[in-house]
Amino acid sequence: MRADVQQVADGTxxxxxxxxxxxxxxxxxxxxxxxxxxPGDREQVLASLAEVGSSPEAVAAVLITxxxxxxxxxxxxxxxxxxxxxYLHEAEVPHARREFLQQVSVGTVLKNGxxxxxxxxxxxxxxxxxxxxxxxxxPEPFPTAGALDLPGRPVPVHTPGHxxxxxxxxxxxxxxxxxxxxxxxxxxxxxxxxxxxxPDMFHHERxxxxxxxxxLAELEGELLLPGHGPVHRGPVRDAALRAREHxx
Length: 248
What we know:
The chain has 248 residues and is an alpha/beta fold. It is built from eight helices and twelve strands. The chain is globular, with a radius of gyration of 16 Å.
């Protein structure tokens, strides 16, 4: 399956993988790659880099919103093959090493199997490597506070709840928020359209996930690039508040 690469702003591309998005930020010949889809999305990740005129050798760093397999998929491959640093929030580093796993259990998913869309999503997740053991051997915490010295100058924003170390990435220069799973615009298991939290079963601590929407509502921007669902255009604040209303 070919990845759907969409340019949403100067040097900014939202890529729709098989069920998860990733983002490419370009600056000259270098790129920042935010998230990497499922393990089974590797060919799509590599193809998406080529489509924007880049290559895996040109990836200055991989930034991970959180260490679930549908976002972490090719991070270790890029690190081991090309020496690409993989950065996460310090609380998410041991999660990426798989010292623990904050992910919905198979039992919980089965209990929710009656809900629309859940069983097809499970089949896809299994086929794409969603439950494989896929650690990053040497993940690193962000090297500096504030804006990172990487293409796009993304600013990590700690948004715990989905996982302890979940981070969104704010790109003030283009008014972009890369929100990961802290704020999405759709999911195969959801029947809500537009900005929303993922269904409850996916969050490690749902109350913290709801509270993190208030952090996102403080950010300036007009482009929401979520971990799942289409690009959302309009004030980030409005999107975060709309998701909060759905969650209450």
